[in-house]
Design goal:
single chain, 183 residues, mainly alpha, two-stranded antiparallel sheet
Length: 183
């Protein structure tokens, strides 16, 4: 299976062609790393979007954003699998032991430009992964605060849900409510 780098819509893309194996190896890996960086950045964007939706209190938009987030995760998974295949090919070409890291590939690369690009891409990808992890933590905290606020509001109305042993929710018996219209 071979790969060809194509410039499309302002970005480099890697397309697979079974008969062409000339573009395999380190060059194909470099193109794939650009695609993976793009996929990581898109995933971070979707998490930032989710954060804005959560902070704005717009739950109806959350479902749509979740679908787009899942699509971004699948796209990242696809490009990550290609990268793993290309790392294996480049590892073999350079005579390194498997499995090999991008850092080890960069050190072993005979070409100065390839070393520089591999090192830069590795650093950018590490930064993006750290950003994604931080966004996940923040989004979980926002969700927990929103859940606590919802539970408190329901408790004030006398309808606080509880969970059964089967992980289903039950709501207590309805009680008469008095609301102050001036509040």
């Amino acid at each position: 299976m071979g790969a060809v780098a194509i410039f499309r819509r302002g970005a480099l893309h890697l397309e697979w062609h079974p008969a062409d194996s000339s573009a395999m190896g380190l060059n194909a890996l470099l193109v794939c790393l650009f695609e993976e960086t793009e996929a990581l950045d898109h995933l971070a964007f979707k998490l930032e979007q989710e954060q804005l939706v959560l902070m704005a209190g717009r739950p109806r938009l959350l479902a749509r954003n979740s679908v787009e987030f899942e699509q971004a995760v699948r796209a990242l998974d696809d490009v990550s699998r290609r990268r793993e295949q290309l790392v294996a090919v480049a590892t073999e070409e350079l005579g390194l032991p498997a499995p090999t890291t991008l850092g080890a590939l960069a050190e072993a690369s005979p070409d100065e430009d390839e070393r520089r690009i591999l090192t830069e891409r590795r650093g950018i990808m590490q930064t993006l992964v750290n950003r994604i992890n931080a966004l996940c933590v923040t989004n979980r905290e926002i969700l927990a605060r929103n859940l606590a606020a919802t539970t408190d509001a329901l408790a004030l109305l006398g309808e606080s849900p509880s969970y059964t042993a089967m992980a289903t929710t039950t709501v207590g018996a309805a009680r008469p409510r008095m609301l102050d219209a001036r509040a």
